[in-house]
UniProtKB/TrEMBL annotation:
Protein name as annotated: L-lactate oxidase
Family listed: Belongs to the FMN-dependent alpha-hydroxy acid dehydrogenase family.
GO molecular function, one term: (S)-2-hydroxy-acid oxidase activity
Residues annotated as the enzyme's active site: H268 (proton acceptor)
Protein species of origin: Fictibacillus aquaticus
Keyword set includes Oxidoreductase: yes
Domain spans labelled FMN hydroxy acid dehydrogenase: 4-372
Record field: catalytic activity: (S)-lactate + O2 = pyruvate + H2O2; mandelate + O2 = phenylglyoxylate + H2O2; a (2S)-2-hydroxycarboxylate + O2 = a 2-oxocarboxylate + H2O2; 2-hydroxyoctadecanoate + O2 = 2-oxooctadecanoate + H2O2
SUPFAM superfamilies the record matches: FMN-linked oxidoreductases
InterPro entries: Aldolase_TIM, Alpha-hydoxy_acid_DH_FMN, FMN-dep_DH, FMN_HAD, FMN_hydac_DH_AS
Length: 372
């Protein structure tokens, strides 16, 4: 571990390898793998190779502005850290380390419902940093509402409702290991510490942990979730509400028509429906439909600065960084996440300058060509 900390790798594949060397095979596989034959997981990265940047030169790029401002949140380099659950299986400090690292760079952190630490503990670690809360909608609506209210109280400034998981994807490699962190109680803190959830139990989660986990699993998914139901969130929070997991332009249109505050174009990093559209392939039609009326965020496949330039050029307002930072967490804890964030910012800055841009928000399709 300390050897890796002293020499954290720079390239994504080496970072992934460093995480693999640090972790047991089950948690490593949990992060690395996708659903099914992992066609979509691969497609997410391959889609970036089919777009090439055609840079402009002699544009005076001596001063550059990488920032974006979305829904009252400042993104110094047009990216945020994606919600990734169960970070405690990667490092003892889990989300606390990631939230601290994000705050050190002013990069907003999106905390997952299934975090190892509670949203209040993550908020304390994040301090003055900016943070959003990712919501998995529980079939016990009062638990959902309680979590949203707790997030508002704890200083989260937007709610990101993830809608691409009405049921869990068929993750063959996790099934091979029979490794399901939530069933082991690994990402359960937000439920176990929730007063409404606790009120459903006859004994506290400390006294009867197994009973509490069984209750959690029984209310965790809400396959009956609909657009109408998600709108009920409006009654319980005044925070901006974003919908994460949009791939179809018609769904983007519904999100705009129903006045949601933003969307995240995402296929959950290839972990849900294998064989579905790569996120980048889905982006242009969605951006054309949304027409700038609400912010469009993007994830699934962002590895390097040039990837972010391509996503912004195809219509995203900002991107979410996923697997790279949790590999950094696994390999080096808080310093590992800081290393990944720092390098991503430098890489993105360099990519913007080398494209011939001075503002990230100026990226547009004129600088891209489709290649085979
Ligand atoms: C290990 C792991 C756990 C994740 N947990 C969540 C989660 O709790 N909530 C959520 O909305 N998305 C979750 N995601 C999806 C990410 O938010 C994001 O969409 C995905 O990582 C993007 O793909 P990429 O990391 O390959 O770029 C998770 C992804 C991974 C890899």
């Amino acid at each position: 571990m300390t050897v890796i900390e002293r020499s954290l790798p720079y390239s994504y594949s080496h970072l992934e390898k460093a995480a693999e060397l640090t972790l047991e095979k089950e948690p490593f596989t949990y992060v690395q793998s996708g659903a099914g034959a992992e066609v979509t997981l691969r497609a997410n990265e391959e889609a970036f190779e089919r777009w090439a940047i055609v840079p402009r030169v002699l544009k005076d790029v001596s001063s550059r502005n990488l920032s974006a401002n979305l829904l009252g949140t400042h993104l110094p380099s047009s990216f945020m850290l994606a919600p990734i659950g169960n970070q405690g299986i990667l490092h003892d400090e889990g989300e606390l380390a990631s939230a601290k690292a994000a705050a050190a760079f002013g990069v907003p952190f999106i905390a997952s419902t299934v975090s190892t630490f509670s949203l209040e503990e993550i908020a304390a670690a994040n301090g003055d940093g900016s943070r959003w809360f990712q919501l998995y909608w529980s079939s016990d609506f009062e638990v959902t509402a309680s979590m949203v209210q707790r997030a508002e109280t704890a200083g989260y400034s937007a709610i990101v409702v993830t809608v691409d998981m009405p049921v869990v994807g068929h993750r063959e490699r996790d099934l091979n290991y029979q490794y399901f962190p939530l069933a082991l109680g690994k990402g359960a803190a937000n439920f176990l510490q929730d007063p409404v959830f606790q009120s459903r139990l006859s004994k506290s989660p400390v006294e009867e942990r197994d009973v509490a986990l069984a209750e959690l699993l029984s209310v965790f998914f809400e396959p009956a979730l609909t657009w109408d139901k998600v709108q009920e969130l409006r009654k319980i929070t005044s925070l901006p509400i974003l919908i994460k997991g949009i791939l179809h332009a018609d769904d983007a249109k519904i999100a705009v028509d129903l006045a949601f505050d933003g969307i995240v174009v995402s296929n959950h990093g290839g972990r849900q429906l294998d064989g579905c559209f790569s996120s980048l392939d889905a982006l242009p039609a969605i951006a054309d439909t949304v027409k700038g009326r609400i912010p469009v965020l993007f994830d699934s496949g962002i590895r390097r600065g040039a990837d972010a330039v391509k996503a912004l050029s195809l219509g995203a307002d900002a991107v979410l960084l996923g697997r790279p930072y949790v590999y950094g967490l696994a390999a080096g804890g808080e310093n590992g996440v800081k290393h990944v964030i720092e390098q991503f910012i430098k890489d993105f800055d360099s990519a913007i300058a080398l494209t011939g841009l001075t503002k990230a928000s100026d990226a547009n399709r004129s600088i891209l060509r489709k290649v085979n």
